[in-house]
Amino acid sequence: MLWGFLTLAWILSCQPVSPDNGDGRPSGEDPAPTEKPAASETGTGETDGYRLVWADYFNDGALDPSKWTIEVNGDGGGNAELQYYRAENVSVGKEPSSGSGCLILTARKESYLGKSFTSGRLNSGGKYAFTYGKIESRILLPKTANGLWPAFWMLGANFGEVGWPRCGEIDILEMGNSTGIKAGTQEKYFNGACHWGYYQGNPAWYPSYARSTTHAYSLQDGQFHLFTLVWDEQQVRMYVDWDQHPDADPYYSMSITDKSTDYAVGHYFHHDFFIVYDLAIGGYFTGILQPSGISALENEASMYVDFVKVYQK
């Protein structure tokens, strides 16, 4: 996502972090989440030796401040985005059709502090981070075209010390890319990506690998879809609706073992990462840099997150 790094640095510097067991849990804490999931919130479950160590099901009607920090800024995230992120655009409530308790990020067409739109973003930085595992989230996406950019991603927890992109970034889901808009496949076109290393050369560049996919069916069909990252010492792999299609190939995979140079991928994905959700509007990813180009918002649109879970072996 490449978003809001100065803001994140300030947020992370303000969060107390307790001594932990090496996986983001305070020392001595029972790793088993106590919140009760609904029947629809199974996901792929505790398979292949994975056990559930952390989760949020968003069923309690309010955001848990021990797990999340809401971001407030209008800096465009370094991507010329058009929204102002407000706390008022982040809520917990029911998804209207299913009645599922959800985290709700709402994009609105409204003027606020010089911006033409507002939206929501939050992260678990300083509150929960982990190294390796299976992370998955069940998400109902809004219609993105033209101009919405929903994302479920992770950022290296050492961002405050080493900056970006040295901290590493794992983008599990992004939708709304300009290529999909131009092809008329915006409801199926999505990508996973990783960014790492450091700026080098002139013009400056950094190592990155993104892979886009035109899915077999719409991911903006008014239904929830499961997005899963499997991350171990060897590679990262990403799947969509893996609970329904357990034999499906990953839509993204990348080896993370190479340490041949100081900017090789193997130096940047073997430490704690934290979780980020946001619903951006416009920006380079969408190819829309002016408010007049945003047609996805007549009034407002929402991204619903049913749950997020972290499993580890």
Can you walk through the features of this model?
- The protein is mostly beta strands and 313 residues long.
- The chain has a single domain, classed as Sandwich (Jelly Rolls).
- 6% of the residues lie in helices and 36% in strands.
- It has three helices and 17 strands.
- It has helices at residues 5-13, 159-162, 178-183; strands spanning 51-56, 69-70, 83-85, 90-94, 101-112, 115-119, 121-123, 133-140, 148-156, 169-175, 189-195, 208-214, 225-231, 235-240, 252-255, 273-281, 300-312.
- The strands form two sheets. Strands 1, 3, 4, 5, 6, 8, 13, 14, 15 and 17 form a ten-stranded mixed sheet that branches. Strands 2-7-16-9-10-11-12 form a seven-stranded antiparallel sheet, with no helix packed on it.
- The longest helix has 9 residues, at 5-13.
- Residues 3-30 have low confidence and may be disordered.
What's the topology here?
Blueprint: H1 5-13, E1 51-56, E2 69-70, E3 83-85, E4 90-94, E5 101-112, E6 115-119, E7 121-123, E8 133-140, E9 148-156, H2 159-162, E10 169-175, H3 178-183, E11 189-195, E12 208-214, E13 225-231, E14 235-240, E15 252-255, E16 273-281, E17 300-312
The run of helices and strands is: HEEEEEEEEEHEHEEEEEEE
Q: What would CATH call the architecture?
A: Sandwich
Radius of gyration: 18 Å
The low-confidence parts are 3-30
DSSP helical segment count: 3
